[in-house]
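tmp note - Melibiose/raffinose/stachyose import permease protein MelD
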Amino acid sequence: MGALKSHALPEVAGKPRPAGADAGSGAQAGARSARARRGRPLRKRWPLAAWIALAPMLLTVVFAYLGTMVWTARVSLSNSRTFPSNDFIGFTQYVRLFHNDRWLVSLQHIVLYGACFIIACIVIGMLLAIFIDQRVSAEGVLRTIFLYPYAMSFVATGLVWQWILNPSLGAQAVLRKLGFAHAHFDWIVDQDWVVYTLVIATVWQASGLVMALMLAGLRGVDDELWKAARLDGIPRWRVYASIVVPMLGPSLSTAFVLLFVMVVKLYDAVVAMTQGGPGTASEVPAKFIMDYLFGRANIGLASAASVVMLLTVLAILAPFFYARSRAAARKDV
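out:
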């Protein structure tokens, strides 16, 4: 019986393994090791030198960012005026804020501006990226021209467009000198249209960034897809609309986040172009905050407005990032 076992074991051990078993076991081992690395504590994955290198940034995030957020929230619950005070008044500043007509008007303007700005930037940026993706001549020059406005500051952009839109000096004056005596392009002094002048100026500046993001995504599309579409006789626009654009989800989401942050931070262009006028026709939350913080010496109300904007950003972006992290986790499984 022992001899039988001794002869049988080598036969089992030497039995040929099915093709692909080594590759499959290697892939499974790699997946197990990756899961083990993810489950390992950070202190075991990262050496001490990495933590020392990250220490300045961590301290900056904790004290300069999180610390100032907490301090701003605390001031918003006080009766602070020119200087911070410890007079706790609860949510009185928030009640005052939402009874302030200027604040409510600024919220209306930022919603209108944000919708127009984000949609226009994504559409124009996508069209520019598709145009350059056709392997046009002088592609490098065109990329530089379209992306160059983004390198300018919003103050410079605002001043340039203020001159262009000035009824006495800009496009309207040029059109009238060319013989169009009744030409009107005075949006910058029209209360009903001044917000759209901000859209024009900032879209001109930011659409090049969207173009660069979309072009990077388009260059990642497999050439075999285009060959198959040509063989099937599918029009090029249909391929973009039905296949390519849905594949650019990560690029579109990145563009949306960057543009949304620009909307919330809108201040420089407003100050350079309109100063919030005519009247309060182009007032935005960031200008409201800066005016009450420095001009009207009402730190408590300005801090309450800042906290409201922060909570708005978190309410919009937190679910977005959560959905992306869940999608990435499903891909790793």
